[in-house]
Design brief:
The chain folds into 2 domains: 255 residues, 3-Layer(aba) Sandwich (Rossmann fold); 125 residues, Coagulation Factor XIII, Chain A, domain 1 (Distorted Sandwich), CATH 2.70.50. By secondary structure, the chain is α+β, with helices and mostly antiparallel strands. The longest helix has 16 residues. Strand 15 and strand 16 form a beta hairpin. The chain is globular and about 90 Å long. The structure holds adenosine-5'-diphosphate and magnesium ion.
Amino acid sequence: MDDIVISLQDVSKSFQRYAKPFDRLRELLAPQIAKSDLFWAVKGLNLEVPRGQTLGIVGRNGSGKSTTLQMVVGTLQPTMGTVSVKGRISALLELGSGFNTEFTGRQNVFFNGQMLGLSRKEIEDKFDCIAAFADIGEFLDEPVKTYSSGMFVRLAFAVAIHSDPDILVVDEALSVGDEAFQRKCFAKIHAIRDAGGTILFVSHGASTIIELCDRAVLLDRGELLLDGNPKLVVDKYQKLSYAPPSKAQELREEIRRINGREVMTFSHKELMIVESMADAPSIIQPIAPRTPMRRKDDVRLKAYFDRHMRPPETTAYVARGAKICDPKITTLTGEAVNYLVGRDEYLYCYTVKFDRDVTQVRFGMLIKTISGLELGGASLVGRSYSVDLVQAGSVAKVKFRFKCLLNSGAYFLNAGVSGTIDGHFGYLDRWIDAAMFKVQVEDFSHASGIIDWMVDPDLVIYDGSHANALPLASQPSITD
Ligand SMILES: Nc1ncnc2c1ncn2[C@@H]1O[C@H](COP(=O)(O)OP(=O)(O)O)[C@@H](O)[C@H]1O
Ligand SMILES: [Mg+2]
């Protein structure tokens, strides 16, 4: 098919493994008494990636993810099978690849850029953008061997995404950077994706794979065990990772059977368990008083402002008739803050200056995660707020009051104003990543994930005699 840009057919890769370093030398000198094993890092892999797809690859350490990526990029040749790739490919592989550590960062931008297929002139033109994206200051003129892993990734990623790739390959490296840098990278990954680029993405972050990818594959001991939608693949990967070794083989068989016929529905057996639990009488009295597990509110955190924390890059649309200014988060009393406390209320505010008459005006906001997942937003619709017409010269003060029902982490905000000018409705001004904030970590929080559901846990423990009378459902088997 025309639209397949990456194709791996029956690809296998073996490495020689030596029990002792000396064995490697012995093999060179006297192959007849060699002491090496042939180790298959990738076995019979078949994979086709259509143009524009974002494919996630998951699997435990040593499952063959990096080896696969390196064969796609061409830094490793398959032992058997064929790999074909169409288009310019740019990769952010594991630390160290593609850079000469004796060279300075500046020299490496040229060295690496040329490896990625850019001409010297193209690199010169892009150099300032690359340096600004990497943001490593004077380290740019120091040898790369003096870099921290964070600095290294900043520079490597900056070069990779500025080479206008048709295919971008990212191997776990992003987890090294801080949140602001990660957000900047994800914004670029989204941009490459929106422009029709194809992405191969290895990550240990389950939620990142689910949010970002259209499809995922699970590699296990060099074998492609499952190919399907990201949620299913991540679920099975986690189940396999946490399975006791005695159950792993059985579970692998199960997952192999799913492959090719994805089922997301509950099995009949699971439904039976749910039903039998619903029927259970709830009259048994606990022998112990209910254990309070509520979060302790006596140690209250306080919201504050850190002027060093800002969104890494704000993208503003070309304004048309109105201009957004000064987006910020404040407390209800108007004090600017960017380190928030979960469950407290805040205002997200910005000002809009109108230089044209505009009708049907709407003001909007949106909160996103680092990887760009849209968590939720709101808009003030013109009609219900009597702003059917805003006249040129007016200034609007927009405030969105919200309760911060988010767990600790970094979040990013958009701001947008839309309306009709000259009979055309659309954005008048829009800022992507207009502001960022972090929700502070709370010592006594047992919450997980992104959203704080304000869960109020409750625990009852029955002693043995009472427990026998409880209608307990059997343990779900590993096939569920
Ligand atoms: N150059 C090499 N020589 C010998 N073994 C290697 C080499 N590269 C990778 N391997 C082995 O191949 C297996 C797969 O490695 P890799 O692709 O890096 O896995 P992953 O990226 O999934 O953690 C591992 O067991 C690793 O030790
Ligand atoms: Mg790896």
